[in-house]
Amino acid sequence: MPKGIFDTAPVIAEMGIDIIVIGAGLSGLASALALCKAGHNVTIIDKRDVSQPWKGAGGCRIPPNLVKIIRRWGLGEEFAKKALPLESLHMLRFETGEFLGQHEWAEEMLREAEGDYELIEYQDLWNIFYKGAQDYGATFMMNTTVTSVDPHALEVTLADGRILAADLFIGADGPQGLTRKLLSDDIEQTPSDGCVMYEAMIPADRVRDVPELKSLGLGQKDINKIMLFLGEGLCMHLFPVSGRDAFAMQLCVGPDMIPAGEPEGSWGDAPSVRIADKLPKNVEPRIKKLAEYAEPAVRVRSENTRLSTWVHSTQRLIVIGDAAHPFPPGAQQGSALAVEDAAVLGKLFTYLKVDDQIGNFLWAVQELRQDRCEKCLQEEYDLYVFLTLRQGEMQEVRDAEMRLKHESGRTDLRQGEDVAAKQWEELRTVYAYDCEDEADNWWIEWGLLRERARERNEFYNTTPIRQPVIQQSVRSV
After folding, report:
1. Are 116 and 122 in contact (CB under 8 A)?
2. How many C-alpha atoms does 26 have within 13 Å on its Cβ side?
3. Residues 317-356: pLDDT tens digits?
4. Within-domain flag for 38
5. Is the model's pLDDT at 213 over the cut of 80?
6. Are residues 49 and 168 in the same domain?
7. What pTM was computed for the model?
8. DSSP 3-state assignment of 135?
9. Which residues contact 291 (CB under 8 A, 6 or more apart)?
10. Total domains, the chain
11. Does 207 lie in the same domain as 160?
12. Distance CA 267, CA 258 (A)
């Protein structure tokens, strides 16, 4: 076990299996780390060259439920070097720059959630999980394309003709990936058409001394805050990353504001868009000025589609993260729930004793995760609707309630009975969730019952148990 990765010695499964993870994004890396921790042999395959930085990856808002896992897994020290603790959320009108109010996270809520709210560049977050997976023994096959997955034969075929075999396949290759397509018959289209986000980075030295931008508080000694601009049919987040040496700019456009013929786009695409070209005519002057200094942006388009099942009928393939439940781009819970999926997967597979348990554990992951992910997904879309209200009665009520709270000196939007308070109270329950506790509870309530039933069966009693495998390997066919 690598020194310093985990605070306590991990529980190792009695039976170690060979696992192939397809996709080296955040969910893939977290899965590899958690499953290696559980004593399994994990190989990650990705077509990307990891020696090169992610293209247009931008910034991440990391909620307490993810920070909690990062620290629990022993990655907190490296995370603290790169992340900025969020101190406040400022809300302004997109068209005028009017200050509507601010929100500060109550200390008791963060204590309950066992984490803080942090800001980090995606590349830095990815590097932390990559290093953790490496240190724990995962094998990486990069610059390698998987052309087919056959869960029946327990094989994957690579572009160069090689065929690899494993006991289990984890699909972590995103919403357009190969593994999600294996379950495509079970995709459900919801009424919402999704949204488009344009994300760009702004080097701080370009904007720090611009007179028109001084009032935004972009200096090195200013507080770490998210500036959330609320507009008609769109919204924008602006927040610092990389020790305040850069700012992430995320412009999210709702379905009725997407220009006709707008191309598709996904994470990993080369930045190809100027945010300044995507701004409406009626825009706050400081936003326009910021956009002029921004680097080229990546375009990410999402469709609100959902899988009925995450588990293949063979019970040897499961999809997780964006391959299972694509979140709108820039959603605060997108990365968090992807890592939660991995954490539950790793926790359950610490209890693996016999091959027959694999399918039960995969269905348990879906049982534990699907409702939460769909609920959070709906809340994210509801939040986007709330932030991008068109001019009218609902928008006027929302803004008036924010102004009233600000004028009365209230900085906790959970207070009160208005719409904003209800939105933030829902987030509180999301932050306090502990996915690994849920997995342990499932094992105690259901897994042990099945295990005892298995032990009473003479067939299983005579089935040899494989010893833990220390050296990772992928079998070549």
Report:
1. no
2. 25
3. 999 999 999 988 888 899 999 999 999 999 999 999 999 9
4. yes
5. yes
6. yes
7. 0.89
8. helix
9. 200, 249, 274, 275, 276, 279
10. 2
11. no
12. 18
